């Protein structure tokens, strides 16, 4: 896995040998159970601003984490030193910590029968032998395209290119041992525009596991500039209740609040606005959310979860009804359920659409707001109360009338999810939640 030509690369066999060695050390300490995870990541990041190199960073990070269980007591330790003596010391520390912690009857490895057998190759690794000079050249090209797009682009916060590749190995005392490589590559640009004494900024980015799937530097730069120019002349709105469309890159986060609320940890801690909601209608009947962990090359694909549990296709929401939670072995035991293979999170969520593209959704909306950026963290995970600063465009007669800023959109997520009228087919594929534009029939929009 060579992210930078001529550099050392993560060795999958070495990591497999290390996790096996650490497990042997743990067994020598007479623990009941143990698990080990080892990672090695190599990357290169370059940022240019106004045509000059602002930063160039090469990373070569590795580490081992060990968790042991004895008499339902848990101890964990980690180290970045792969020397056998350091690894043995980490095991000893984990065992010492386990002696001091309180017993927890729910603690322990996932059950043996849930372990992944013959994990699939999901095509997650695409090397990019990118030299520093080439990285800088691409970043400059991206920023130059943005700065040349319109004379109103007067400044830049820079263009950044990043490439990384790594290997993760995991093993436990059930006899499970596996490893797989993965890569991640991205290019972004942020520029500032000015008109009549007012300034606006906006951005764009592309990301993929395969560098061949990235948008070109020119496309990223020009889209960042176009989005910035389109925001110039932004106005405030009078406070109003009106329909709201979340652009695809914003819709992902809007749906993501529900996903976090159905995580096992939020459920057993009783800190979720969707508490005990399994079997309830939480979205309109046209909404389905599928989990597809084995999509080749998927951003959130995984052959097994962080505990070695097999990952499987699931339908989380069918006809608007919540089918189940996202559970690790621990949260499942706390809730009296079984693990769903989601230790570490969800894997490729696909949100079905019943609408067309943004243009058709604007026509249907008639008058309302398109949200292109959200500001602040005003979401209460316990109550579902939602209040975010927003930037976007006011729509009249199904067409964009003017850009708007300095507004707040608000409501309660339980209610807002029921008000979803359309989900577009213009999916954003850059994250673990693939969702198109989302039209909400009414929200409180606070302005002047």
Summary keywords:
448 residues; PmbA/TldD fold; single chain; 6-stranded antiparallel sheet; alpha+beta; 36% strand; 5-stranded mixed β-barrel; disordered N terminus; 9 helices
Structural class: alpha+beta
Number of domains: 2
What is the fold named in CATH at topology level of the largest domain?
PmbA/TldD fold
Along the chain, the helix and strand elements come as HEEEHHEEEHEHHEEEHEHEEEHEEE
Topology:
Elements: H1 12-28, E1 33-49, E2 52-70, E3 73-79, H2 84-100, H3 132-149, E4 153-172, E5 177-195, E6 198-208, H4 217-231, E7 240-246, H5 248-261, H6 264-268, E8 289-291, E9 314-318, E10 321-322, H7 329-335, E11 349-351, H8 358-365, E12 368-375, E13 385-396, E14 399-412, H9 413-418, E15 420-423, E16 433-434, E17 438-446
Parallel strand pairs: 7-12, 11-16
Antiparallel strand pairs: 1-2, 1-4, 2-3, 4-5, 5-6, 7-17, 8-9, 8-11, 9-10, 12-13, 13-14, 14-17, 15-17
Written description of the protein model:
With 448 residues, this protein is α+β, with helices and mostly antiparallel strands. The chain folds into two domains: 12-229, PmbA/TldD superfamily (PmbA/TldD fold, 2-Layer Sandwich); 234-448, no CATH class. The chain has helices spanning 12-28, 84-100, 132-149, 217-231, 248-261, 264-268, 329-335, 358-365, 413-418, and strands spanning 33-49, 52-70, 73-79, 153-172, 177-195, 198-208, 240-246, 289-291, 314-318, 321-322, 349-351, 368-375, 385-396, 399-412, 420-423, 433-434, 438-446. Helix 1 crosses helix 2 and helix 3 (132-149) packs parallel to helix 4. It starts with 11 loop residues before the first helix and ends with a strand. 44% of the residues are buried. Mean pLDDT is 95; it is low at 1-6.
């Amino acid at each position: 896995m060579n992210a930078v030509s001529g550099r050392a690369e993560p060795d999958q066999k070495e990591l497999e040998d290390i996790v096996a060695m650490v497990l042997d050390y743990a067994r020598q300490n007479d623990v009941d159970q143990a698990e080990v995870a080892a990672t090695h990541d190599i990357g290169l990041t370059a940022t240019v601003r106004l045509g000059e190199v602002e930063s160039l960073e090469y990373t070569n990070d590795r580490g081992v984490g060990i968790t042991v269980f004895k008499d339902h007591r848990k101890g964990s330790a980690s180290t970045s030193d792969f020397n056998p003596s350091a690894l043995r010391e980490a095991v000893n520390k984990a065992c010492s910590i386990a002696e001091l912690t309180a017993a927890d009857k729910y603690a322990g490895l996932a059950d043996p029968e849930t372990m992944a057998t013959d994990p699939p190759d999901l095509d997650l690794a695409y090397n990019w032998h990118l030299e520093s000079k080439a990285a800088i050249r691409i970043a400059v090209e991206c920023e130059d395209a943005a700065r040349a797009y319109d004379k109103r682009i007067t400044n830049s916060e820079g263009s950044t290119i990043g490439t990384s590749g790594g290997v993760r190995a995991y093993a436990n005392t059930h006899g499970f041992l596996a490893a797989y490589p993965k890569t991640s590559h991205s290019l972004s640009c942020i520029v500032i525009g000015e008109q009549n004494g007012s300034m606006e900024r906006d951005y764009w980015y592309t990301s993929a596991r395969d560098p061949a799937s990235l948008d070109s530097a020119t496309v990223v730069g020009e889209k960042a500039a176009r989005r910035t120019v389109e925001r110039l002349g932004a106005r405030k709105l009078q406070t109003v209740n009106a329909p709201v469309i979340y652009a695809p890159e914003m819709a992902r986060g809007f749906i993501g609040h529900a996903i976090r609320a159905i995580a096992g940890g939020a459920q057993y801690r009783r800190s979720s606005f969707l508490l005990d909601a399994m079997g309830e209608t939480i979205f309109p009947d046209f909404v389905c959310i599928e989990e597809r962990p084995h999509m080749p090359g998927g951003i959130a694909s995984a052959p097994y979860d962080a505990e070695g549990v097999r990952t499987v296709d699931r339908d989380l929401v069918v006809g608007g009804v919540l089918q189940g939670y996202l559970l690790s072995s621990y949260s499942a035991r706390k809730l009296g359920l079984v693990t769903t293979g989601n230790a570490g999170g969800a894997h490729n969520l696909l949100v079905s659409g019943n609408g067309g593209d943004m243009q058709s959704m604007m026509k249907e909306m008639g008058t309302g707001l398109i949200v292109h950026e959200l500001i602040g963290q005003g979401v209460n995970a316990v109550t579902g109360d939602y209040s975010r600063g927003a930037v976007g465009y006011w729509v009249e007669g199904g067409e964009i009338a003017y850009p708007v800023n300095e507004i707040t959109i608000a409501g309660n997520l339980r209610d807002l999810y029921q008000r979803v009228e359309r989900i577009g087919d213009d999916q954003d594929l850059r994250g673990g939640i693939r969702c198109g534009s989302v039209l909400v029939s009414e929200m409180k929009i606070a302005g002047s």
